Amino acid sequence: MKIALISDVHGNLEALETVLRDIEKQGAEKIHFLGDAVGYGCNPNECVKLIANHCDIKLLGNHDYAAMGLEAVDNFNQLAQDSIQWTQEALTKKSISILADFEMDADFNDFHMVHGSPGEPDKWHYILTPQQAAREFEAFSQSTCFVGHSHLPSIFMMEAGGEVVQFVKSPFEREEKCRYIVNIGSVGQPRDGDPRSCYLIMDTDSNKMQFRRVEYDIKKVQEKMQKAKIPDFLIERLSVGL
Amino acid sequence: MPEIIVKYEDKVIERMVADKKRISIGRTNDNDIALENRGVSRKHAQIEFNDNAAVIIDNESLNGTFVNNRKITEEILHDNDIITIGKYNLVYHTETSRQEAPGNLDGTMILKTKKQKEMVEQDKMEKEIIDRMGGSVLLGEENVDFSEYRIEHNVTTIGKAKFVHIHARGFLLSGIQAKIVKEPEQFYLVNLGRKGKTKLNGEEVSRQGLKNGDIIQVGKTVFRFLEGRQ
Q1: Are A223 and A182 in contact (CB under 8 A)?
Q2: For B82-102, how does the pLDDT look when each residue is reduced to its tens digit (9 = 90+)?
């Protein structure tokens, strides 16, 4: 069965709609969401609703958590803090009540999924290096853990000897004797230099997975963000994927 | 004849008909109205009656005597005035209420009823819990995993998800059904999940400030809020 994994939509409705259409074309039967439906973008309510309607497993991200007023935003950078405040004002009670049913981590088949790190899901740690990944492999028992959060698609592979290597490859076939932490990238705000939306599609009957990159109408999103008076940097970064 | 209704945290403890010229109020038993509470001085205040008026006089008490929320030293009482001493409210009526005949007309009605004792005991117990736990506390009442829970986070989550601070039980509850938020002035209870599943003192709540003794209900789970020093 083909399963699509999406993450870090961040209120970018055009990107989400485009990705959902692409997922349908690819013939995926299920979609799981790895967190951060809101924050930065100007359509948080629409994105929460679409994700709730289309996704099977739904996880919370740090922006969702903060937008629900569940933690102080002191650790966020200034832009993220401003954006959380904007999102808190925009988010409806209905959307909050939908997010209230999202989970912190989840399992399916032989896979684990979490927004930040499997060790401490509610601490929102980033996994950016093989050293950081090596510690996190101890926190889950499955062969593979899928994560989001950093917006950087990446594969951390733990070889049979315990050594962890990092690379990006698509399509990619998992080896039985290795374990993996896979960052699936971001739908609504890619930061790896490629402005196209990123998500992952996998086949549970084989070990194949593929990062999909999908072009969406960035200009339209940027115009909406300008009207909503969202800071320029958050608007401009979409064009360059940074 | 004038009448005084004694209430402890808004619960009526006793009615008293004032047929004496002077009624003393204080913590010790030799007062006409004895009020057991730390905030009450031994000889806290007195009410003096003459043909035309009733006057309340504060005996330089430590925590003061209030009439209609205003601190007084001496004050003429009017019908329905509320005298506050410690946690007690004394309502002054110029005439005895019609509906309930007083049981004792000699003006020294015994106030230390079972009910009052129970309430004072409960109050003491709650104070001990707050002191022991060192802050505001939730007391488990029904379907709760704890008997006492110190509210230490700025946001305390309540629901059926694995990751929340307080686990609630019940049908159709959200993962994070509600939160208790610490704000500078007081704590607030906020509903986040499904509508109608979070109640405060039996009423559906969206966002509401918490008062000492409030009953919080999330699904089938019930606990009581005790406010400690902030």
Answers
A1: no
A2: 999 988 999 999 887 655 444
Query: Which among A72, A97, A103 has the least Cβ separation from residue B192?
Result: A97
List, for residues A224-238, the tens digit of each pLDDT value. Answer: 999 998 899 999 999
Residue of A96, A101, A117 best to disrupt the B interface, most CBs of B under 10 A: A101
Percent of chain B with pLDDT over 70: 90
The rounded distance, in Å, linking the Cα atoms of A100 and A37 is 12
Whether B54 and B60 have beta carbons less than 8 Å apart is answered as no
The DSSP code for B212 is T
pLDDT of residue B230 exceeding 80:
no
Residues of A in contact with B181 (CB under 8 A): 69
As to burial, measured by CB atoms within 10 angstroms (0-12 exposed, 13-18 middle, 19+ buried), residue A68 is buried
Supply the angle between the helices A78-90 and A44-54 in degrees, to the nearest 10: 80
What residues of chain A have any CB closer than 8 angstroms to a CB in chain B?
68-72, 93, 96-97, 100-104, 121-122
Q: What φ, ψ does residue A232 adopt, rounded to 5°? A: -55, -40
Distance CA A188, CA A195 (A): 9
pLDDT at B50 over 70: yes
Q: How far apart are CA A151 and CA A76, in angstroms?
A: 16
ipTM score assigned to the predicted complex: 0.87
d(CA B157, CA B195): 16
pTM higher than the cut 0.80: no
Phi-psi region of A24 (alpha: psi -120 to 50; beta: other; left: phi over 0): alpha
Amino acid at B162: K
Bridge partners, A167 (sequence order): A155
Please give the Cα distance from A110 to B21 (Å, whole number): 85
More confident residue, B230 or B27: B27
Structure-block tokens of residue A187:
């739908």
> Regarding beta strands B137-142 and B221-226, do their DSSP bridges make them parallel or antiparallel, or are they unpaired?
antiparallel
Residue among A69, A96, A103 whose CB faces B161 most closely: A103
Reported confidence tier of residue B106, pLDDT bands at 50, 70, 90: very low
Percent of chain A with pLDDT over 90: 88
Kindly state whether B199 is in contact with chain A, defined as any CB-CB distance less than 8 angstroms.
no
Composition of chain A by helix, strand, coil, percent to 5: 35, 20, 45
**Nearest CA to B37 among B123, B128, B126?**
B123
In whole angstroms, what is the distance from residue A12 CA to residue A225 CA? 10
